[in-house]
Amino acid sequence: MNYYSTRDPSKQSVSFQEAVLSGLAPDGGLYVPDSIPELSPDWQNASSLPELATRVLTPWLADELSRDALAAITTDALDFSVPLLKLDDGLAVLELFHGPTLSFKDVGARMMARLMNTFLKGRRERLTILVATSGDTGSAVADGFAGQENIRVVLLYPKSMVSEVQERQLTAPRPGVRAYAVAGDFDACQRLVKAAFVDPELRDLGLSSANSINLGRLLPQSTYYFWAALQAGVLGFEPPIFCVPSGNLGNLTAGILASRMGLEVPHFIAAHNANDFFPGYLKSVYDHGGFRNTVPTLSNAMDVGAPSNFERLYGLLGGDALREGDIWATSVSDEVTRTRLRKVYETYGYVACPHTAVGFEAAARYREATGDGAPIIVLATAHPAKFADVVEQTLGVTLPEVAALEALKGPDITAPTLAPTLDALKGELLTKA
Description:
- Helix 3 (67-77) crosses helix 4 and helix 13 packs across helix 15.
- By secondary structure, this protein is α/β, with parallel strands linked by helices.
- The longest helix is centred in the middle third of the chain and has 21 residues, at 215-235.
- The protein has 17 helices and 14 strands.
- It has a domain at 81-104 and 219-395: Rossmann fold, CATH 3.40.50.1100.
- Helices cover 43% and strands 14% of the residues.
- It has a six-stranded mixed sheet with strand order 4-5-13-10-11-12, sandwiched between helices. Strands 9-6-7-8-14 form a five-stranded parallel sheet. Strands 2-1-3 form a three-stranded antiparallel sheet.
- Strand 10, helix 9 and strand 11 (268-272) form a beta-alpha-beta unit.
């Protein structure tokens, strides 16, 4: 398997190892596969998520990593449950938030950290992981990479634009990890990361990424679509539509890759908050480059005005296929998010986070707009306790304590504030290498 940049018309390819360790291509593009392997039906015989992940990822990695080495990585990384809960005959929720930072991003971040560290050991090299986060990515990366001997992590998050719990997770002391509060929004953080990757003065630092622009996180995320399908078969939910709460479009892209590998998915629903570029693009309201300014919302981990993985989706599928394909998208306001949060609780007794509530609303809209009665699986991307203020105020309930969050309580730890300029970031990276 080889990979090329979305911006390289010659499609000069590199190995998975090179793509993962570099993060972005030298021209600033995102790596995409030159072909997509068709998965053997034996994935359906897997009895656990680590075993299934090994089977799904082996065709991608067999040239660079032994099956035993991959199995050891999946067993260590994916040591938590990912249950599928049936709410009614046509609706289920896949809970992706039972990892150490209570976010779906634990799956990709923990896998990527171990893949990278394995490759770096063989090369006797070190890397600096530079990450822009709108909330959950940073804490998942910080936890997943902490203590990996060949890697240090630098986190950039938008100052005053993440929840209190998220900030505590981001700034918790961890070996090899530093966090900065950028005086700007998520898009400003993301611009800094992209600019740093192509700056010649920073080349010797060995910069790489760990958010969903990196294939090392994206490919592992495709595995839980297969895991959901296995559980859906037991529930009679075959084949399911997947409703994906979406911000930077990495989770959706992972699902598209799963479907291209052979997983039967009739449709994907892309559920966005007020940051509506992608739904607008599919409806021809916005053009290819018509990104929007980021709008702060209750579902802040999806507050992305310029989603990076749009470029990857566009490169994989093309504009016509995107607009005419199997993705249906909608944008949900904060007011409607709260209304749907209440309705899901009143109807099913199920407590969702704001991001997952956006997904439930999108699923309901899809059903109404299309009349499609196929079963829908909503991806639950974060634990509701991470957004306790919003959830408790909206539902009038008190959420039970969660051990992973209780452990964060204590004196406030303040991250240094960073100006949203490349010079400011370079100063930190070069003086604190």
